[in-house]
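Table S2 (text version). Query chain:
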Amino acid sequence: MLRATAVLLTKIITGGNAVWVDCPPEADRLRVYFANHGSHLDFATLWASLPSNMRQRTRPVAARDYWGRSALMRGIAVGMFNSLLISRETITRKDNPIEQMAAAMRDGNSLILFPEGTRSLDGVIAAFKPGLYHLAQKVPEAELVPVYLQNLNRILPKGYLLPIPLISTVVFGPPMQLNEGEKKGDFLNRTKMALLNLAPQPEH
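Corresponding structure-token output:
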């Protein structure tokens, strides 16, 4: 009931119109959905835009230092959206986010990631951090799906408490994978470019 409510509220607030570009929405695929990050609505909107049979086995990855700082925040992230909370700061062998994400995927879950690591203030996609690369090494069978989130940074900009009524679009791009022998920098540039290619092109 909580998760059904979360889907309904998210769709009311953001619209979340899903567009699938050479990427069939199939529930039996193990995937990492990686997206641009400009709003706290990002993971909820992407998650809610998935078909219900895919949503049930897809977990957003969220920062524990933010979403785990109170019982209410944890309840929203974990109880409503089934998020996987990971540490962004003190990383140890026992508290390793890559291992935790890989374990969740070995249990049959797809994941939602934001490779920039933090929200963009101006909508410009920053350089990707290496987590996506290390996860692709750990779970090479997974499909990596770029997802461009349009307008969410305008619907709930950083510092705003109430959303601005606009319609968002969630564009799912063609799946990709880590190539054998591909270097980290090349991979991160290639995945970022795949994401940028899904952004709307300016009119001339």
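Notes on Table S2: The chain has nine helices and seven strands. Residues 2-151+159-196 form a domain with the Glycerol-3-phosphate (1)-acyltransferase fold (CATH 3.40.1130.10).
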